[in-house]
Amino acid sequence: VFVDPLSGAGAPSAYPNPSIEGFYVGFDISGDASDAELSVFDLSGGLVYNERRIGLEPGVYRAPVPGEAFYWDGTDQQGHPVAGGVYMALLRLGDRAHILKLAAIR
Questions:
Q1: DSSP state of 17
Q2: Which of 45, 59, 63, 77 is a Cys-bridge partner for 4, taking CB atoms 3.0 to 4.6 Å apart?
């Protein structure tokens, strides 16, 4: 069972971290419906992964419910596994942005 621990009231979080296989990136939306976008970059600034969801209703978007939290499986945009190391995740929720550090273990 995956449990996405909150690191503050509704703070975005990545779980598990570090990870061998992939990461759930959970978040909360309060107020009006909002767009959400997750972009993952390597440390040289290259885009590795991007996913966008439009018009999400207010609620809790956390693992392990499929389709709730974002899930990055540790592959690049061509489907190849990324090298082990540190990656930066930019989570945009409406007009707010959050940075999360992800550690991929290979």
A1: S
A2: 63
- One-letter amino acid of 52: R
Mean pLDDT of 36-54: 97
Identify the weakest region by mean pLDDT among 9-13, 21-25, 76-80. 9-13
Q: Which H helix or E strand runs over 29?
A: strand 23-29
Mapping DSSP onto H, E and C, the string for the chain reads CCCCCCCCCCCCEEECCCECCCEEEEEEECCCCEEEEEEEECCCCCEEEEEEEEEECCEEECCCCCCCCEEECCECCCCCECCCEEEEEEEEECCEEEEEEEEECC
| Cα–Cα nearest to 27, from 76, 77, 63, 61 | 61
Show the tokens assigned to 19. 């990870």
User: Closest Cα partner for 82 from 38, 46, 37, 53?
Assistant: 46
